[in-house]
Structure formats: structure tokens, C-alpha cells
Amino acid sequence: MFKNVFSVVNRIASGPYADRTALVFDGQRRSFAQLRERALRLANGLREAGVRPGDRVAVLLRNGHPWSESFLGIAALGAICVPVNVLLSTYEVEFVLDDSEPRCLIVDAGAEQVLAGLGRLPELLVTVGAVPTPAGATAIGYEGMLEGASAHELAGPGVEDLFILYYTSGTTGSPKGAAHTHGGVLWNSYHQVADFGLTAEDSYLAVPSMSWAAGFNNLILPLWWIGGHSVMLSTGGATIERIVDAACAGEVTHTFLVPTLLKQLLSSPEHLARLRDSRLRWIISGAEPVPRAVIEAVDQELPGCSVLQGYGMSEFPTIATALRPEEAISHAGSAGRPCSITHIAVREADGAIAARGEGEVLLRSLASMREYWRRPDATAASFADGWFNSGDSGTIDAGGFLTITGRQKDMIISGGLNVYPKEIEDVIYRLDDIAEASVVGVPNERWGETVVAIVVPSGPAATPEAVQRECERLLAGYKRPRQVLIRDAPLPRTPSGKVLKRDLRPWAAAELGIDAGVSS
Q1: Given this model, what pLDDT does residue 135 score?
Q2: DSSP annotation string for 428-476
Q3: 97 & 73 share domain
Q4: pLDDT per residue over 291-345, tens digit each?
Q5: Taking burial as the number of CB atoms within 10 A of a residue's CB, which of 118, 213, 295, 425 is the most buried?
Q6: Could you tell me the residue range of the domain that residue 468 belongs to?
Q7: Same domain, 125 and 151
């Protein structure tokens, strides 16, 4: 029945739920039937313009209905979708385009400056709204393409065909295109229906950019399986005021908030009062563990709402493990247990693979990517021994709970001893007035590396002395930071919220007058 991603909406649009709302953006509703028709018109329009199954179609759009139509239209055609993060610089966008070699780029006015700065363009541009066309480019207006195309259904791709390339955030090097089949994307969404008890009466407020792996693949596509709907927030709209406004107006039951936004919500009694009277019952969070104190505060302030924490990746599953609300206090700091289609293990220091213990986190899942786009060596290394090697360090306890301790490359080796930054960061976050904290290793002639803590304060209590005292109280000597640096600017992060330690290491070294050219 479901041979590709488009089939999910096609089935609903062909049945009794056809007129139900599939998506709301900026107050404008799309039913399943409308979404199906516009996606098919786009698929046929692209085909008439020369795009064929297997061709890449890059999408550089802000959130909106054209994004969802493009996502499904590309799927219906059998082309390969290449989401381009709207936050990337011109240089970074050019890297993605050069690597994926798309035949077509769908773009809106928000990318005007990036578009003007690109040295090379795909042979076809499809422009959403008023977008100046660079010299020498062939452009077709998006709405004009849809109006002139038919809505007949195409043969479409199969489950083993590639559908989408999600470029990794590049925390440890150049981004790589995680290539996913239709089948992998379907498995990634389908398990969420059962694992999280979703129903057709649920609605989701989508806060992230649709260009991110979490965009369509967390709850939006799962709800489409069963006739549920989502409300999409505009790109750049992730303020607590706008989130609460949208949640209340759309009567949403689920949303996604990173820990930083959760903390902002808890500091606003007015917004908490509004949410207490709303239908919101689940807040999903990720990117980093939610501190226990935040969980307890949500339980107290929003008694009808729970926090579900997840751990996932661009290589999929986007939610590989989940820490359920009833486990959040007893297993604070954990990423939870694997979801129904995922198995986890660790590769220990001696290379042995174990179901329990400490080491690099390994995953097996029907949803995992097929390969890194045109990188056979990286693909082979990532799937060594039949597991996906995540690059994350973690521990799996006797109950099967996974705790992420950091990235393998983030591990600090000081005097021959392994130091895991997350363990130290967890201690620092216990203190008052800590907005952000990160721990990195900087070069040291005697020890190889030395531990440095970087703190962004939110009040006067966050001082180097307070951090040192807490670390002395709770950590072994070799784990304690030798220096604590106060930083005025926010920590650098990837668009998905992960701290860019590769940028913090040279910053810390420069602050300490250390030669950053020494490998750390």
C-alpha cells in the first residue's frame, strides 16, 4: 500500500478524511485533498521541465505550504529531495549544491542574497514569490508551474529508491549527505504512531525549519499516516510568545522545544498560565538532555503536560531512543531506551560490541540511512560490523537506558586519562545563573590536553570560583577544569542546536594565550 512517501498523503486524500486539515501555516489551511493535488501538479510540472526520477531537486525555502508541497511532489515524481538549511551562508549552500549536483533548485525570496552570490547554479530554478533571477539562469515561477500542470498520478518510485539527502551539521568536519530511501523515511515515521500513541485527533506545532531532518520526520509525517494535522511555525518564529500564541490558537496537543526554549518558557508566568488552559499535553525535546530541575518545574507549572526527550540524528532514526515522562526524574540525564524499530549497543575501548557498558553508541534500525552520498569509504566506516557507528560516546545501563556522554572526538585525553565533557557540564549546570556551559580540551605540553570550562552566565552567581568549588566537590581531580572562562556571547551551535566545540576550542586557547595550532 505504501510504496513511497507520497503514498501516505495519497491514501488519506483518497478516502473519507480527504477534506480534513493536513497542515496549517500562517492561518491558511491545506486539506489532504488540496495537498495531494498541489503536490501532484508540482511533480508533473517538474517532469515537464525536464526533471527525471533520480535527479536531485534542492529546496531552499523558508517554512510554508510550498515546502510541504515540494516534499511530497518530489517524492511523487521519484526525484531526490535535497533540503538546504536556510541558515547556511552562501559558501555553505554552494558546498551542498556542488556535492549533490541538483538539476533543479526551488527557492524563495528569503534566499535572494545567497542566490546572487552562488558561482554556479542548477540548470533550472523554480521561484516562490518575487525572486530576482540571476543572469544566465532559467527560472519558472512556482505558482505558474502548478497552474499549467496536470494533477494526474505518476507511477512513482519504490521503497528501495532514494528519496532525500539530509546534510549533516558538520560538528566534526565537512557536511555529508545522509541518503535515505522511501522505505527508511516511512519506517522512521510509522513507528512514532505506535511508540507515542498518536491519534487522528492529535495536532502538532512544528517549530523547527522544514529543512532539518526533524522538520517533516518528527510527528508531521507520522500524523499524516492517521489523518492528524500540524501547524507549521514560520522560519525564525521560535520565540516563546509566538510559540504560545500558535499553540493556543491551533489547539495543538504536541510541540517541540529545545531545552533553551523550555527554560525561557518557565521564566514567563504569563505564558505558562495561557498554556495551562490549552490542549498541549506533550512537549518533545532534544539536542541535549533536559536538566532535572527543568523537568520538575514543568511538572509543577503545567500539570497536564509532560516532557518527552529523544535522541536521534540526521542519519536516522530522528528519534532513536526516548525518555518517557514517567522516567524523566528517575533517569534524569538519560536519552531513554530504544524505540520499537531500533536496537542499540556500545563499542567498548577494546573494540568489543556489548549490549551494556560504555563506549561509542551503535544503532541498528530499519529507518537508518542507506549511505553517505557518494562517500563509499565514509559509508563503510559508519556501518562497520553491521551497526551504524554514531560517533557519540555513551553508556547503556542494566535497564537499557542510554546516556550520551559526548562525541567521540570531543573526549579529552589528559595525562592518559579519558575525560568526558558532558559529565563535567552536568555538574556545572547544577549551579544557579548558568545560561550555557561547555567543556573542551586545549593543548598542554605536559598533559597533552587540559580541561577548560566555558560558561555563559545568566546572573551574578555564575562565577569561575563557584564553578571550581562545585567541580572540586563532585569530581575526581583529573576531571576538574583547570580554567573557567566566562563568555559574554552565546555558545556557537549548529542549526539543530548542537554546541560547536570545534569553534570553542580555538576560542578558549586564544583566551588563554595557547597555541591553537597544536592538535587537540
Answers
A1: 85
A2: HTTSTTEEEEEEEEEEETTTEEEEEEEEEESSTT--HHHHHHHHHHHS-
A3: yes
A4: 888 899 999 999 999 999 999 999 999 999 999 999 999 998 899 999 999 999 9
A5: 213
A6: 411-511
A7: yes
